[in-house]
Design goal:
Layout lengths: L21 H9 L2 H20 L6 H8 L9 H16 L4 E3 L2 H19 L3 H7 L10 H8 L9 H5 L3 H6 L7 H5 L12 E3 L9
Antiparallel strand pairs: 1-2
Length: 206
Amino acid sequence: MLIFRNNIYDQQEVNPNRHLSCSDIEGRKISNPYNFLSVALTEEFDVISFLQRQPTEYWAQDSKKFYPRSHKMGNYSTFIDILNILIDGLENRKTWQTMNTYHFCFLYDVLVRFSFNYNHDNKKGRLESLPELKGKPFRIEMFIKDYFFNTVFLLNEDQYNSLTRPEKIKLGYDCPLQFAVINGLFPTNYEIKLQPSSNYPYSIYV
């Protein structure tokens, strides 16, 4: 089970003190974060397969287009490895697992692109992709806000490297391996592994 800011496996488990607007409430009722992630990640195999079939001289350009944030942290082989790891973690209901910035950065690119394509599809296509949304647009910015701990990977090298450690902590930029991702370092096999958590990761409200 993947650990996000809010529990994707139990939609009822949200902070009761958090104010929800009417649009937030409607969005929560019609969206299923687990299924959204499952569909988007599963379809990503087809995307990468398509990109790999293109002439190799276009790979660098295509990678920047399809993965505008994560292209510098790996290649298609890296993305397939991360994709397999994320799907395994998503479907594993026995262990809570922690992601790092490599995972979140890749996820961001995948989900933003998937949502863009979904929102620009016709109603029939939307219903086939995510029937629980009943053909309505999906508000990806709300999903990112609700389920991502931060989006530090959106900073460029100069923006991130100019911050002091106290400034990073104050801004909530404390996700593991964020320096490596922002500065374009390819991950090791260990760095793209999920880390198991022995504790229940969410607050329990009574």
